[in-house]
Design goal:
Elements lengths: L36 E6 L4 E6 L4 E9 L22 E2 L3 E3 L5 E6 L8 E10 L1 H4 L3 E7 L11 E9 L7 E9 L7 E6 L5 E11 L22 E8 L1
Antiparallel strand pairs: 1-2, 3-5, 3-13, 4-7, 6-7, 7-12, 8-11, 8-13, 9-10, 9-12
Amino acid sequence: MSNLLVKYGSGSPSREGALAPHLVDFNNVASTNNNGYALGYNSTSSEWESKKLAETSRTVFYHWNCRTNETCAGNTAYTYDANDNTIWRNGQAKINNTSYVTRVVASGSLVPVGTTAWTQYWTLLGSALNGKRIRLEACHMAHGVTGTTEQLVYQWGQGSSNLATYTPIGNKAYQTNEYTQVALGEFVMGASNVNVALKVVSISGSASILRGGPSISGGAKSAFASYLTLSIMEG
C-alpha cells in the first residue's frame, strides 16, 4: 500500500488531513488594499500590490426610446423584408452631440415605407470620432410578431451608401412572440465616415414597423421594450 503526500510549500497535512500552509510560502503584500482596488502581482518586486481597477466610461451621443404614455406610431401595412434597415421614429430620438452623428431618413428599397419622419441609418462622423471605440446597442420590438413560428433576426451592420451590403457587427438578436433580445456591436472608428444600421437579417412570418401606445393589449405589441443608443466607450 502506498500513500500520496500532498504538500503546500513547506506545509504538510496532519494525520486528519488538515493542511495549514506556512506564511513563508506566501509573497508579501506590499500595501493595504482599499475599496475599488484589487491585488496585482509585481514580478519585479515579487510582491502583491494594491492596484486600482480600470474604469470604463460611456458617453451616449444618440438615443431613442418610447416613453410611457407616448405614442410611437407605426402602421401594420408596412412590413419588413430580409435585409431591410429597421426604421425609428424621429419624435422619440435625441441627438446629444451633432458633431458625432447625422441621421438618414427612411427612403428607398430597404425600408418598409419612405418617410422623412423616420430614420433608417446613421452616419458616424470620422472627423470627431476618429480613434474612438463606438458601442451600438438596440432592442427592436417589431409589431405583429404573434405566431409561435414567427421570428425576426437582427444584427448591427456598418458600410457605405444605404447598407444594401454591409459588414456585420456583434451578435444576432432574436425576436419571437415570447421575447426580444438586445443587439450589441462595438468597433473602433477611423478617419472616414461610417454608416450604421440595425439590419433585419432574416424573418419568418410577417412583422411591421414599431408601434406603441399607452397600453399593451392582445397582439398589438407596444414599442415600450424598444430602445437604441449610440455611444463612445472609454477606459
